[in-house]
Amino acid sequence: MKVLVVGGGGREHAIVRKLKESRGVTKLYCAPGNGGIAMDAECVNIAATDIDAMVRFAEKEQIDYVVVAPDDPLAMGMVDALNAAGIPAFGPNKAAARIEASKAFSKDLMKRYHIPTAAYEVFDDADKAKAYVKEKNRYPVVIKADGLALGKGVLICETEEAAMNAINSMMCEGAFGASGSRVVIEEFLTGPEVSVLSFTDGKTVVPMISSMDHKRALDGDKGLNTGGMGTIAPNPYYTPEVAKVCMETIFRPTVEAMAAEGCPFKGCLYFGLMLTPDGPKVIEYNCRFGDPETQVVLPLLESDLLAVMQAVTNGTLADCEVKFSDKSAACVILASGGYPEAYEKGKAIAGLANGQPENGGAVVYHAGTKQEPHGALVTAGGRVLGVTALAPSLKEAIDAAYIAAENITFEGAHMRRDIGARALAAKEGKEG
User: Fold this and answer.
1) What does the domain layout of the chain look like in residue ranges?
2) What CA–CA distance (Å, rounded) separates 192 from 314?
C-alpha cells in the first residue's frame, strides 16, 4: 500500500518510522516532512494545511491510505475532503475534530454528559470575563483561548493582574488571532498530570500506554510553556486502578457522547488528565497524536500500526489486537536557544549519521530540521530533535536518552536536564 503521512514534525517522524515496520506498506510519503523524515519517507513539498493540493497529490499518486497527524488540517476538514475523493484516512472528520478545535464545545460536551472536568465559564466579551475573574477571586485561575493556538493558548494566572493581562492579550490585542476572541476561564486543578492517547473507531476505545509530558522550558517546571520538552512512558501515577476509573468515567463516556452528538470520533483521541484529590478529571482533549507523547508511546507499540489504523477507519477496532511492550521509554527534546521565544535557524547539527545517533542506543525523531543541498542537516525550528530510548526500566531509558542527547550538538542547543525525575521520584515513593 502507498501511505501518505500529513505533517512535518517529531510526531510525524515517529508515525513514519512505525509505519515503515508495517508489512502492508510498500511506499511511504510525508507532506511536507522535514530533513530527518526525508531519510525514512519521500517528502512532498505541500503544506499540511493545503487541503486541495493534498487531495490532488493523493489522487495523482493513487495513495491507498492517508494519516492526517496535525490538528489544523483535521479541524479544517482534510479527512472529509479525502473521504469525498474516495481516499480512506486516519483521523476525525471536521465535526469530530471540534473536540480540540473549540474548547467551548468540549467543555459543554463534558457538562452535558457528566464527564469530570474543571468548573468553567465561556466568554465572548472581555469586560464580562474580567468581572467574572474578579468576582470569583480564586487564584491561580486558568485562561484558555477557545481555538487552536499551537499548544500555547493556555495561561495559568497567579494574580488578578496576570489574569487581566491574559484576557487583554487574548481578547483585545489578538495574541492568538481569532482563536482568542472567545475564552474559557476555569478553576485551577491540582494533582499529577497524565497523558493518555487512545485509538477509537467511534464505538470501541483502546487506550495506549500512558505518558508524562514536561511542558515548561526550564528545569523544575520553570519558564514558559512550550510544545513539550520531553516525555516518559508509562506514567507511574497511572495505576491499573486509575486506568479502570478513567475508562468508566471519562474514556468510554466521551466516545459515547461524541456518537450521541452525531459526530462519532474516529482516530487518535488524546486525553489530558489531572489526577485530583476528587478523582481523575479532563484538562483537555486533543483530536490527534500528542507531540512529544507519540515519540515514547509508538516505539512501545508491538502491533502493526497500519493494521490498527485501518481497523479504526473501518470500524473494526474491537476485532484488532493492540499490544504494547512492557518496557519503558524516555524522550529528551533538543531545542533551539531562546525557544519558545525568538531563536535562530540554520545551525549545523553534529553527532548524527544518516539522521540517527552515531553510537546507537536511541532513536532520533526530527522535528525542526532541514537538509541542505549538500546533505548536511541544520536546525529549522524551535524544537529540533527528540531523542528517544527504550529500556527494561524507566531509569535506564532516561539515562540512555541523555547519553545519546549529549552526543548531538548544534550552536545554542538547549535541553531540560530533569526529564523523568518526577516520575522516578514517584516510583521510589518519594512523591504522591
Assistant:
1) 2-91, 119-187, 193-427
2) 35
